[in-house]
Amino acid sequence: MRAVVIEEYGVVPVVRDVPKPVAADGAVVLRVEATGLCRSDWHGWMGHDADIVLPHVPGHELAGTIAAVGAGVTGWQVGDRVTTPFICACGTCEQCLEGNQQVCPNQLQPGFNYWGSFAEYVAVPYASVNLVRLPDDMDFATAAGLGCRFATSFRAVHQVGKVRAGERVAVFGCGGVGLSAVMIASALGASVVAIDTNPDALKLAREYGAVHTVEASDQVAAEIQDLGGAHVTIDALGSSDIVQQALTSLRPRGRHVQIGLLPSGVQLDVGRLIGQELSWLGSHGMPAHAYPEMLALVASGNLHPAELITRTITLAETPAALAALSAGTPPGITVITPGVA
């Protein structure tokens, strides 16, 4: 099969032939119909993830058709249209049995722990726990966008941040995760403030429901406090500077939700956390069993994840697009279609 292969960190990958995966016991192999280009893939390409072993195929947001079913997998067959969380949980540990597959200590992540979906085929381990059947009327590109950024934002906004109607939510960073958070928080009835350096990203944020848009600067926190402060802040990019601005933007007893990765770490103003009784909340993906609520809101027309897709590219165009993330995250979601020349 054809795949995007990272042979050296920080060096533009190549597209070449590699062995097709096999369906191990408990696993399935998918023909990849669509896969998202995410900033997490860039972090992996730059060498920020210790689990990656070179050479490596990235890609973790995916949707496809089951091409092979391994021994022990029940309820699924060749030809089924599916997606999967980027966290493939084991299904048997204490956390999984409590329903917290997103923090499974035995998790495997495509594109990080093993070869991912920037390829014509990809394996999904622990398939019985991690596959999500797609609605008949949902296209693969939309489904691929759900797998990481939209599903991650849905859980972060709704289940972790517990955003309520009438609250003010400040979303820092309007890439795929941030714009998803804007759309979801707006659908929940929140008043959303979107912050980014890119005017095009802010334009999209307004289209997806942001009431206020603010160009990123060192005055952001003051501007948000002038609006009355935020009940909830979300770092959808991953930046120590953003974290400080987000915490300063909160009202007393506000909640900060951290989605963006912080490979260089962060120093917090713990005095402010204590004195203002602020909450710092981490959010990491969403388990397969939680997808039905999100899919129901999409089916009802309350959420429109397809609108977040701003670009579709081929496998051949992917290496350059991955490298271009070094200059910043483009607005919206980029989807790769491996089967299209």
Essential attributes:
341 residues; alpha/beta; 2 domains; globular; 11 helices; Quinone Oxidoreductase, Chain A, domain 1; 28% helix; 15 strands; Rossmann fold
Q: Helix and strand succession?
A: EEEHEEHEHEHEHEHEHEHEHEHEHE
Number of helices: 11
Oligomer: single chain
Q: Helical content, roughly?
A: 25-40%
CATH architecture label name of the largest domain: Alpha-Beta Complex
CATH class of the largest domain: Alpha Beta
Q: Domains counted in the coordinates: how many?
A: 2
CATH superfamily assignment of the largest domain? Medium-chain alcohol dehydrogenases, catalytic domain
Shape: globular
CATH topology group of the largest domain: Quinone Oxidoreductase, Chain A, domain 1
Our Rg estimate from Cα atoms comes to 19 Å
Specify the structural class.
alpha/beta
Amount of beta strand:
15-25%
Tell me the span between the first and last alpha carbons. 13 Å
Number of strands: 15
Biggest beta sheet summary: 7 strands, mixed
Give the overall pLDDT as a whole number. 95
